[in-house]
Design brief:
222 residues; 2 domains; mainly alpha; 9 helices
């Protein structure tokens, strides 16, 4: 048993080192990567383009790379419906991967820290677990919240996987739909379409603000 734990720790450490090296390489080269280059690369795969795009988008989410330009690109390349579906599915998959990376690499360390440092944090963590879906949903539905970093933070909590996945998928639907709508509208720009997208974001902000201030905090903490 002890030997198995040692091997697991070695494998985890190697994975972390390789992940950090890869992350450094990506950030060193990300400046030379433009949206137009990504579009050309994806289009070069023809009918497999959507699959390549989704794999690329998953990587963007996991590596905490700004994803908004590529969300718009999906609408431009694939249209409203397909752009919406591809980004939503890929973002959810990327969020799940990031969640599990944090869960299996950092969770034990965080649990030990919480156990020895603060019982209040542990109690709050248990309450978040009890209201996991609502916690994730409220975080996701508010536009421009730190989506990618939150994936790892949720992985360090005790939120149930099913609550995390469902909250992420449903919570991000409106935002990705609006971005796909914007992207699909860019090539035939219309003031009314732009105003419609802005209005959609304002509605999401209002929903997120209302639930967090009048319902969310009370439900999660009480």
């Amino acid at each position: 048993m002890e030997k198995t734990n040692t091997i697991s720790k070695i494998i985890s450490s190697l994975f972390v080192i390789l992940f950090i090296v890869f992350l450094v390489w990506v950030f060193k080269n990300i400046d030379s990567l433009s949206v137009s280059q990504v579009r050309e690369y994806i289009e070069s795969y023809g009918v497999l383009g959507p699959i390549v795009f989704m794999l690329f988008y998953v990587l963007v989410i996991v590596l905490i790379i700004p994803n908004t330009p590529f969300t718009l690109l999906a609408g431009i390349m694939f249209g409203l419906l397909h752009g919406f579906i591809y980004t939503l599915v890929a973002a959810t998959v990327g969020a799940i991967i990031a969640f599990y990376i944090a869960k299996y690499i950092g969770l034990n360390w965080v649990r030990k820290l919480i156990k020895y440092r603060s019982k209040k944090i542990e109690i709050y963590n248990e309450k978040i677990r009890a209201n996991g879906f609502l916690t994730v949903f409220l975080t996701r539905i508010t536009p421009f919240m730190p989506f990618k970093m939150a994936n790892y933070m949720f992985g360090l909590s005790k939120i149930r996987t099913k609550d995390y996945i469902l909250g992420t998928f449903l919570g991000k639907m409106p935002e990705f739909f609006i971005f796909a709508y914007l992207g699909a509208s860019l090539e035939s720009f219309s003031v009314w379409r732009a105003l419609g997208a802005i209005g959609g974001f304002l509605i999401l902000f209002a929903i997120g603000w209302y639930w967090n201030n009048f319902y969310g905090d009370k439900k999660i903490i009480d």
